Amino acid sequence: MTDTYFEILRSGTNSSIQDKGRNHLYHIGIALSGAMDQRIFSISNALVNNNPNEGVIEFAYQGPLLKLKNGSVNFAITGNVSFNILRKNSIIEEGKCFQSYFLEKEDKIDIIYTKDSVFGYLAIEGGFKIEKVWGSYSVNTKAKIGPNNGEKFSVGDKIYINKSEAKNFIKKKIEYKKSVETTIRTTKGTNFDYFSEEAKNKFFNEEYQVTNLSDRMGMRLEGPKLENIVNTNIKSEGLVKGVVQVPSDGNPIIMFSDHGSIGGYPKIAVVITADHDKAAQLIPGSKIKFKEVNLDEAEKLFKSHFNETKNYIEQIK
Amino acid sequence: MIKNISNLGDAAIYCDFGKEVNKNINLNVISYFKHLQKLVKEKSIEGITNLTPSYNKLIISFDLSITNYAKIKKILETLEVKKNNQKDSKKIRIPICFDNDLALDLISLSKKLKISPNEIEDLYLNKEYFCYMTGFIAGMPFLGDINEKIRFDRLQTPRVKVPKGSVGITEQFCNIYTFESPGGWNIIGNTPLKVFDKLNLSNPSLIKPGDQINFYKISKQEYIKWND
Known about the structure:
- The complex is a heterodimer.
- By secondary structure, chain A is α+β, with helices and mostly antiparallel strands.
- Chain A has helices at residues 38-47, 147-150, 197-205, 276-280, 295-315; strands at residues 5-10, 16-18, 56-60, 65-69, 72-78, 81-86, 92-94, 100-104, 108-114, 119-124, 158-160, 183-188, 208-214, 218-222, 237-238, 243-245, 253-255, 262-263, 267-271, 287-292.
- In chain A, strand 16 and strand 17 form a beta hairpin.
- Chain A starts with a strand and ends with a helix.
- By secondary structure, chain B is α+β, with helices and mostly antiparallel strands.
- Chain B has two domains: 4-78, 2-Layer Sandwich (Gyrase A, domain 2); 91-225, Cyclophilin (Beta Barrel).
- In chain B, 23% of the residues lie in helices and 28% in strands.
- Chain B has a seven-stranded mixed sheet with strand order 5-13-6-7-10-9-12.
- The longest helix of chain B is centred in the first third of the chain and has 19 residues, at 23-41.
- Chains A and B meet through strand 15, strand 18, strand 19 and helix 5 of A and helix 1, strand 3 and strand 4 of B.
């Protein structure tokens, strides 16, 4: 039988295979990786009847142009994404996010861009023909680990698909409400007291702008400089996703999925888990505000975030 | 052994073992790290996703949908951890080439320290190092302590690309760049040895926290031929 695969006609700015992420390797310096927006990643899989941790294609800003070779597939795209389905009889169908589609050989998916957001996801029913490395499908371009030799996709690459034919297409969809909230909630960091009273006030009361220097590793912010009154370096120690570090220039940086496993800048705050997805989707130029919550509140907010994701998945019809 | 336990965000625990950086405190960190690693492997603690030991801290990350800060903290407080006796640590010899093309900062460091390059080499080779931690990039070992005479601060402007295999020094520490990476350490040589091997799935990192490392000098020719 002939293999069913996508041929990449345009790779897009940053397209790679991601899943929930890779655990138990921080101690040797290997980051989590994984989808930057975990919620809509898991919804993309649910829309095509996949197990919630199947590997999908994550793209950012401009997405890929993919041509299906042989067979047929069911797919779904999640995010706030503008895309077209170019049928082989030259009919152009405008795609809608959060619903599944049937695609036949020689049809193309043209993922044009992510609107007012950074990341989107493309899931295929049955998943891609890829192997897990250290328990995960996620590509880690820094350590060159994962499918596609740990690289993002480039033109001409072929992405093989597990199921050669999609049988029984039933359209599945949900109404997804995109959050427009730009308040990022954090708990106090372990070096909170390294900062002056004025800096602490500024951090929680003034606006910070997302800069262009933002990617899967981290997000650099610009705004009122945060004065450190103790030491602008600490003894290098572990980092986790969501940590807000402040180097000597006084501008905060939020750590994301591909961050280095250890760092030596003071940690003023940590973004709560419930707000990781939201923070990752902020485009350069966005103005954000930080709000302090305590651990108890953070845990409650996680619970409601977790239940909300579960509800979305249960609502899929 | 743990001096203070606090939360790092809502999904990690921050264990502080003391202010100083020394082998004694670091061995306490490693003791807890190895003990917990075993418990995680045996599945006797659920929800832990990562353990990150460093000089004097241990960060325990967990999945908030399975466990939480209070539960893990309680486990930590009742844990009986024996101090690591270094029985499972290895002695590893690492080849280093000090050729000028590879030792990017040896000459300038020699001028700054007012010690000849040969003397820096000798002082560097003549010591056994202890691996405090690995990380930042995959498999990068943080070793120490180097001779007091050859200690120096980081470069004022970090390099955008430090070549793979570079051996760097800063303050009381030395390291090996397992990948090409940005970095600000003073590069005094380069090793052709594969310190991190992603194809070795069960044991990718040659050097682990607690291991003892010696360097030995090789010529440029030996360096070039190493991976033939």
